[in-house]
Amino acid sequence: MPSFADGAVTHRDFLRSAFQSMLRARILENKLSSLYKAGKIVGGVYLGRGQEAVSATLGTALIQGQDVFAPLIRDQAGRTAFGESLLDCTRTYLGSLQGPMRGRDGNIHRGRPAEGIPAMISHLGSQVSVVAGMLFARRLQGKLDGCVGATCIGDGASSTGAFHEGINLAAVEKLPLVLVIGNNQFAYSTPNRRQFACADLVERARGYGIEGFAVDGTDLLACASVITEAIRRARAGHGPQMIVARLLRLSGHGEHDDAFYVPQNIRNDHYGRDCMEVATRQLVEHQMVTSEEIHAWNDQFADEVQRAVAQAQQEAPPDPYHEDWTALSTRFPLPLRTSSPSTVRQPAAQPVCS
Amino acid sequence: MSVTYIDAIREAQETLLRDDPRVFLYGQDIATFGGAFKATKGLAELFPGRVFDSPISEDAMIGLAVGAAIEGLRPIVEMQFADFSSIAFNQIVNQAATHFYRTGIPIPITVRLPSGGTVGSGPFHSQSMEGIYAQYPGLVVLTPATVSDAYHMLIDAVALDDPVIFCEHKFLYRWLKAKSINGDLLPIGQARIIRPGKHATVVAYSAMVHEAVRAADHLQHDGWEIEVVDLRSVKPLDINTVLASVARTGRLLAVGEAFPWGGVTAEVVSRVTEEGFHLLDAPPQRLNARDTPVPYHPKLWAAHRPTPESICQALRKLLAF
Amino acid sequence: MPTVPILMPQLGESIAEATVVRLGIAVGDAVRADQEIIEVETNKAIMGVTTLCHGIVSEIRAQEGVSYSVGTLLGLLEVTPEEVARTGMDTLESLEEKRAATHHSACPSRAEANLHFALDDNDAYEEAPAVVPNIKGLPVPAGTMGAHYISPRMRARMVDLGLREADISAVAGTGAGGRVTVEDLERFLEYLDSWPSTHASSMRLAVADAMRRSWTRPLATVGLPAVLDRVLDHRRGHTPKPGLTLYLLRAFALALMENPTTAGYLIGDKVVHPRSFDIGVAVQIEDGVVVPVLRKLDQKKLSELVGEYDDLVSRARRRRLTEADCHGGIATVTNFGTFGLTLGTPIPLPNETLILGIGAGVKKPVWSTQVEAFLPAIVADIFLTFDHRVVDGGGAGVLLARVAELLQHPDSL
Known about the structure:
The structure holds 3 protein chains of 3 kinds.
Chain A: H1 11-37, H2 52-61, E1 68-70, H3 76-82, H4 86-94, H5 126-140, E2 149-154, H6 161-172, E3 177-183, E4 186-187, E5 190-191, H7 203-208, E6 211-216, H8 220-235, E7 241-246, H9 264-268, H10 275-285, H11 291-314
Parallel strand pairs in A: 1-2, 2-3, 3-7, 6-7
Antiparallel strand pairs in A: 4-5
Chain B: E1 3-4, H1 5-19, E2 23-27, H2 43-46, E3 51-53, H3 58-70, E4 74-78, H4 89-103, E5 110-115, H5 130-134, E6 140-142, H6 147-159, E7 164-169, H7 170-175, E8 177-178, E9 192-195, E10 200-204, H8 207-220, E11 226-230, E12 233-235, H9 239-249, E13 252-255, H10 263-276, E14 285-287, H11 298-304, H12 308-320
Helix pairs in contact in B: 1-6, 3-4, 8-12, 9-10
Chain C: E1 3-7, E2 17-23, E3 30-31, E4 36-41, E5 46-50, E6 55-60, E7 67-69, E8 73-78, H1 81-87, H2 92-103, H3 152-161, H4 182-192, H5 202-214, E9 219-227, H6 229-236, H7 244-258, E10 265-267, E11 270-272, E12 279-281, E13 283-285, E14 288-290, E15 293-294, H8 302-317, E16 331-335, E17 354-358, E18 362-368, E19 373-387, H9 393-406
Parallel strand pairs in C: 12-16, 16-17
Antiparallel strand pairs in C: 1-8, 2-4, 2-7, 3-6, 4-5, 6-8, 9-19, 10-11, 12-15, 13-14, 17-19, 18-19
Helix pairs in contact in C: 7-9
């Protein structure tokens, strides 16, 4: 697949592609919210509204089939850009047996690990070391060249031990890990000032001995240049890259939350602006897209989303009476053996340990 | 010539590194230093680029192993002490153990836990974690008690597609010796009757198997024939072998070194009561460590865990019923 | 036109209900897909309920200010078939079909084939009433140890061998508190093997079982002498001759009728009273005893009973009794005097409280207050065995004395 990174895709193509993913994600997520508020989805719906520019840029800059992308909860745009189908999303949210999680897990806890998309768990920070492990394994197998692994995380998750352990390990191993911290100013309802004491999270990069970037997460053009550069440096062997994108979550933590705790002055300030509007203005101004095109895409994506919802809605849910109730892939009891499974070599005459 | 339990573990890892290119070792101080217990001594030199020192980051160590397993490798992670795996608990039970169920992609990692008490090790270097991990779906939990099992079960553990918690007993490391690592061919998930008898069944695993055999030897002088079952694998639990033994003896004592609340012994008693109530001629008994942290002083420690003496006492009570 | 339900969504993981704050729609309104039509408030936030397709509001069930549980039907939309197809939404009609289709599948009552997550009232849990700790009614054995205690394994082995608790009463226990262990039992069985043995008949086993079960109760026996001359005179004057036992049956029934609680049967904290004065008679047959029952003894004169009595006894001896013949008695009469016995302590049936026995009549001098001299008389002792939980010695004595007295007036029987 041609990518921006290898020069085969122009800056214009890249931005148009990222913008389309943003738009597709926004429309999909609006539909998810609607499904939730109509009682069709249980558990929760978690949106990436306001974070599409960062996420879509990352997903667009990564190469599907080659790179690893471990999305977190606000990465619908990145997932779409990286190539995850809309059906994977609607099937998982609606509990279809056809989906990648088959009703066993829901909403954003989905993935296709064998295709480079690990399925996140709810315990924040824990995907950092998993991505590091995938890269580590590729290096051991001599398959790492040119690969990067990216994962996204929020300001809240940056306080976890797993986050620290994961980055430190990746730094020690000098792995091509791209860590995008979407600092959306609130972890559920907890503001930055109760989450960390440093002036900017990007300062931490120096402590880990890795390269760090700060970017305005509401600005598609800025995200595109910073994130693609970070990915280029990771690919080029400069070790882990940390990107801290400043923005504001334009929704509640989930759709059950009306975010009453976000003060009006924060909503009104620079980072409270909607990255979709900013991106639309930027691309139209730079004559990369026309209003007519955006209009047509809107209709096209709304139709794609509606079809993905309708299909998942009508597919069979899991059947508890036919569910394979085992969490192991091994089927016990194992058959008795007649010969040893591997060559038994006697230890050396002198015991290795004394 | 004799082979110790830790020789067997080191030997198994050498065999695995030699025979399976997917295997690599990851843990604290395991490369040049050869591990806190020398379970990987010399392996870094024999297999350059396959044995890695990790930072003191138990959570990230398991996270890395899970990632590597997704990519098709078979990592063996050494926790320096089983006790420290509590830091990795989240990655083990939530990441590794749920992965196959959620995604259909198995996570073949082996986590070696140097477990159990030794003199003077105190509260944080003596714990037995098998019961905690066995409680979670999606994990295989192994507790080898013999030199041969230490070797063969580790080989088998790496061959399994599921995450394996491999509980090695630190006391057995050097205390337990055998003429060779040859053994029977029991598969993972099958218990072994290590000593036949007819008056009572002791179900034990790991180091407690040897304590139980000593107790049984002692009671033999009084004419009691005690059957000792070595579970080998606490999950899956081979309840059929246990029930067959209780069917012969009518009396059950489950012995474990872990803390007494719940755990493997409680599971054994519960399953036997549930499935073999009609076999019981006496209330089934459990013997575990005491309900305090593992104490430091040798005298306290010796009275904290089950010993041949306390097992004998429990058996006499059971036999007198 | 298809109807699409508007449901109360689950707005939060622990949310069970929400309050409607504002209805933004009225019946007849046209609504768009994804339009927020109802504003609801949870304890966490104020949220909107959306509709998922274009349509016309045909019914509103929700009211402002009222709380509804998750999954409640808040209203209905009429939607075109094309719109239903476009959105893939379930309609009331399609839900009904799916319910019907899954009704007889393995899934019990929760027919929600493709509802995905739509919840209904059946999903709600009701809080169970608090349990008041109470040991009343718990089966508390007199002793859990000793010979009373039978381990699960022992019980299983006994079932295996067809043994009852009575069978192991001869075994000396070596277990805790002297309980009989399986080893004790096996040793005992081995010892028994050295003795000659035969198989017990099924009649023998039936009697053994009844007696063993009856013997679990505290039984006591009282007795007194009864003069039989008048009965015997009366008997000689009738053809066919009524059996002596029949006089006893009739006298017993009349005495019980005067004090029916005496024949009550104690179950737990309840005394079960006689429904009808039906009394059995013990008939010795080969290798056992059977007890056919005579019906409504309080309502039939002696003379009317002779035929019924003779028929039952004759069929009993020929083993031709049916189950119904032996069913439903409240007490039993046994005449062990026919074996020449003068004294006995009979055992009532397990489901009866009383048994009346009579010994052999013996000619004895009896002091007559009328003539101030000993006169010869035929005297038999009668005995009443009773469940001491129900009846006491006094009550039993009154009953027995009344029977003896009634026997002095055979004409009234």
